[in-house]
Design a protein that fits this description.
heterotrimer; A mainly alpha; B alpha+beta; C mainly alpha; B: alpha+beta; Cyclin A, domain 1; SH3 type barrels; 2 domains; five-stranded antiparallel β-sheet; C: Cyclin A, domain 1; 2 strands
């Protein structure tokens, strides 16, 4: 029984398209067409600065830091400001927490109010008549249609953003994520979970 | 107003269509319109309340069949015309065709007693009933909670009352509250017994039971 | 990156739009994110409009609808840099050979 393979770190074989992508990158760098760090900056900007990633960072911070979570639930606006988030449609933010027996979901029946600083711009479905009409009336049915099946033992709380307060859901931390870093946790959080149409 | 925009609880709309790969911004015109609204608000030509009411005043069929950003476009065009800044003919000439505007405002009178008491009338835990008010102008009290009983869960401080702000320069602030309504209170005994709807309501929308 | 390119990327729709979940870009592997960043960088560096890349992407997807999205993206990028003579076909082949000898296939 030979275990010599365990002594060597074999890099995983590259797929043909990955070979081509790497070759391109090397070539473009050699020719000065892309600069070191530029690609990382672009990817980072698209992945991290666009809307829902802000909320994901807030959620991850709340998961790892109980004191931050308490502040977040007491005063959402001040707590997200600690992470540098705020601005229009976020001046009065209330964060509502999911538990094993309570599920929260957010809607604006009258128009399309949405917590921009943490979630970016609302998706079309959030602004659509079926969502706005039905979520306050038959939340369990509509959530099931949208892919989230909640038993009757879970209370559903629908938040209608009818005034100046904007809402964000703090989803429950998924099981089996102990030991993950804050960045890894943030990567697990989806926009739909922070609206309440999905669980993680 | 009891407009078609006040959609909470309406039936017949079918399923929620979720676009796979929905782009972040659907149209450059969305950004443009938003920028224009912000600019006009900054110059006090309009405010968000009058803007929302201009959307609410759209012809109901137009409202329901148009994409969301067209609501903004219609409201913008309507307000510009109503403020005398452009004429309908000028808009249509630029747009190369008909640009339907919203219906006129039905009233400039403020129906509610728009008092601005410094102290909140209700406390967390107060039982309240939503008043059976049906203003012809702008309001942020959804139809589906009028006449219904709920419990105050938060007192959020004072905010400008939209029912006044959409129609007058008068700065009227009132306390606003979050009120929890049991689903069965709203939709009858056949409704989900384990669901509740939380709505943010201004003080003049509420009274003691 | 410039606002112009940023807006153009965000406005992409239909089959040539980058995959998103919940509004966020989805990369199944790091090389895809890098290919994304490379396209943005090259377009800007060469002073092109985003549609120079976008049209080639649309053509690749139409010619190879069975291929994964970012495979078409890489092909479109190769097409772009060759068409604008930023690299030659020989240089491309040599670079690929070099990558292959560094890593097993």
């Amino acid at each position: 029984m030979s275990d010599h393979d365990d002594d060597h770190h074999h890099p995983a074989p590259l797929s043909p398209v990955e070979v081509r992508a790497r070759a391109l990158e090397e070539l473009l760098k050699e020719k000065g067409l892309i600069q070191e760090g530029f690609i990382d900056a672009v990817v980072s900007a698209y992945e991290n600065d666009i809307g829902p990633m802000n909320g994901a960072r807030v959620v991850a911070r709340a998961w790892v830091d109980p004191a931050y979570k308490a502040r977040l639930l007491a005063d959402g606006t001040a707590a997200i400001a600690e992470l540098g988030f705020g601005g229009p449609e976020g001046e009065h933010l209330v964060v509502v927490e999911d538990t094993p027996t309570v599920h929260n979901v957010v809607v604006c029946t009258l128009c399309s109010c949405y917590p921009w600083p943490v979630l970016g711009l609302p998706p079309n479905w959030y602004k659509s008549p079926p969502y706005r009409a039905r979520m306050v009336r038959e939340p369990r049915t509509l959530l099931r249609e949208m892919g989230l099946d909640l038993p009757e033992s879970v209370e559903i709380r629908v938040w209608d953003s009818s005034a100046e307060v904007r809402y964000m859901v703090l989803p429950a931390r998924p099981a089996g994520t102990e030991g993950k870093s804050e960045a890894e946790l943030a990567a697990l959080v989806t926009r739909d979970a922070m609206i309440g149409t999905a669980r993680l | 107003m009891n407009g078609v925009h006040d959609l909470g609880g309406m039936d017949g709309f079918g399923s929620v269509e979720v676009e796979a790969n929905e782009p972040v911004v659907h149209d450059a015109s969305e950004r443009i319109v938003f920028g224009l609204v912000s600019a006009l608000s900054g110059q006090r030509v309009t405010n968000v309340h009058a803007f929302r009411h201009a959307i609410e005043r759209m012809d109901p069929a137009h409202y329901l069949r148009s994409p969301y950003y067209e609501h903004w476009l219609t409201a913008l065009a309507t307000l510009l015309v109503e403020k005398g800044l452009v004429t309908p003919a000028e808009i249509e000439a630029r747009a190369g065709g008909g640009v339907p505007l919203s219906q006129p405002v039905r009233t400039d009178t403020v129906v509610l007693s728009a008092s601005s008491a410094a102290e909140p009338r209700f406390a967390v835990g107060s039982a309240v009933v939503v008043r059976n008010l049906h203003p012809l102008g702008h309001t942020r009290c959804p139809r589906y909670v009028r006449g219904k009983r709920g419990v105050v869960t938060r007192a959020d401080g004072q905010f400008r009352l939209p029912d006044v702000a959409a129609h007058a320069d008068e700065r009227c602030k009132q306390h606003a509250y979050n009120v929890r309504f049991a689903a069965r209170e709203l939709w009858g005994d056949a409704a989900d017994g384990a669901a509740a709807v939380y709505v943010d309501l201004w003080e003049s929308y509420l009274e003691a039971p | 990156m410039s606002l112009r390119v940023d807006a153009a990327v965000a406005a992409m729709r239909g089959p040539e739009a980058p995959p998103r979940r919940n509004g966020e870009l989805v990369f199944d592997a790091p090389w895809q994110g890098r290919a994304f960043g490379m396209a943005v960088g090259v377009v800007e560096r060469l002073g092109l409009e985003w549609k120079a890349f976008q049209q080639r992407l649309i053509a690749e997807i139409a010619a190879h609808p069975e291929l994964p999205y970012y495979d078409c993206w890489v092909a479109a990028l190769e097409r772009l840099v060759l068409d604008y003579q930023a690299v030659t076909a020989e240089e491309m082949a040599a670079a690929r050979a070099a990558v292959r000898t560094e890593t097993p296939e």
